[in-house]
Design brief:
Elements (H helix, E strand, L loop, with lengths): L3 H4 L3 H13 L14 E5 L16 E5 H7 L12 E9 L3 E8 L4 E7 L5 E7 L1 H13 L2
């Protein structure tokens, strides 16, 4: 029996992957990135299915940065359609800041990375998140 990693090398998965990339115009559907390495993310898993046996509606193109963020303990069980990400690249000598938001729970995780993709520091905003959003809304008016 093939391991999951071996299954991702299977030509059936490679073909499916390209179909999803083409459908999504080779663009991360969470942050809009077109430059970072792209992954195909399973919005949900079906027990016993091979990676290529999923309907296209359960597959989506996301960049490796967003994939890393939504795979954290805070977000791994959150439904895909309840997540929004804002990514700022070029921060502090080529690093990036990621804001990952769980819309229904008003929860936000901020992570910072250096130019080598090493995690620097992160913060979790839950109760404070609503206040931050209100401050940002007020300042933009």
């Amino acid at each position: 029996m093939k391991t999951y990693s071996e299954k991702l090398k299977d030509p059936r998965w490679q073909k499916k992957r390209l179909q999803i990339f083409n459908r999504d115009k080779f663009t991360c559907k969470l942050c809009g990135d077109t430059e970072t390495t792209l992954h195909v993310h399973h919005k949900e898993y079906i027990s016993g299915n091979d990676p290529w046996d999923y309907p296209n509606k359960l597959l989506v193109t996301i960049c490796e940065h967003c994939h890393k963020e939504i795979s954290t303990d805070e977000f791994k069980d959150v439904p895909y359609n309840e997540i929004k990400i804002y990514k700022s690249v070029g921060w502090h000598k080529g690093g990036r800041i990621m804001f990952t938001v769980w819309l229904k729970k008003e929860f936000c995780n901020m992570s910072t990375y250096d130019s080598n993709n090493n995690f620097i520091i992160g913060f979790i905003f839950d109760d404070e998140f609503k206040a931050i959003v209100n401050i940002l809304k007020a300042s933009s008016q």
